[in-house]
């Protein structure tokens, strides 16, 4: 067995069904699936049973401990050589495992991280949220330097490690606060080869409303500070850009009452950024509607992340 696919789930049987169906359609078939029910009130037992004839699937249940520790539980029960970790709200393209297998074999990878994308049937808001999370014009621009895939820090919705990596590093040390970034840093410090595999993308079917999307982005900013508890170097100047953007927006609001030259300059800069972002989204998604919605989701995402990081930094500082 080469791949063990690890999926923690919490009260989401419908989206798990979509993920398992996409796994059933994989062109590469040397895999097993391990689903860890992390203290759900609405379980996925019936969903798992409907795929029993399609592939090998273990169904584990536990008290709610958070997705990081649920993944650890799954990996301790895995029989494969390489563990693929997925969130339950993703869908795999048919050649996902085939592409990943080739990348691991030809590039000698010990671990990997993959990007996310929006499928054609996603809603306007889902496509706009995906753009905000992946675009060069937002925090997507600091997720990984494609010219150097070795600088990428894997995200838990689409990442994987060899059995050796898990056994030597011990897996996740936090339940759900940037635990994937922390482990990525620790994997590299242990001397293992972790890189971005650009072609191993997943369709990330986020169920967020705009409000919950803002809350999620806020937590991402906080999580970066949490990671710095383990790795002080985790916060770099580039991670402060969303906070700079948020302060820039606040400055525009304050300056609007005085109509100074500085305000006119700020408006021009903001307008130029907005035009480039919307044009980029329209080009990528081939939809004016998605392009305009992408402007809103990008502003929300940047400002929320930008607020979350200093909030947690101040909180951490005063808590000692």
Automatic annotation (TrEMBL):
Entry keyword set: Glycosyltransferase, Membrane, Transferase, Transmembrane, Transmembrane helix
Gene3D superfamilies: Spore Coat Polysaccharide Biosynthesis Protein SpsA, Chain A (3.90.550.10)
Pfam families: Glycos_transf_2
Domain Glycosyltransferase 2-like residue range list: 4-168
Molecular-function GO terms, alphabetical: glycosyltransferase activity
Signal peptide: none
Its EC number(s): 2.4.-.-
InterPro entries tied to this protein: Glyco_trans_2-like, Glycosyltransf_2, Nucleotide-diphossugar_trans
Residue ranges of the TM segments: 237-255
PANTHER family, A to Z: GLYCOSYLTRANSFERASE (PTHR43685), SLR2126 PROTEIN (PTHR43685:SF3)
Name by which UniProt lists this protein: Glycosyltransferase
Organism: Algoriphagus halophytocola
Lineage: Bacteria, Pseudomonadati, Bacteroidota, Cytophagia, Cytophagales
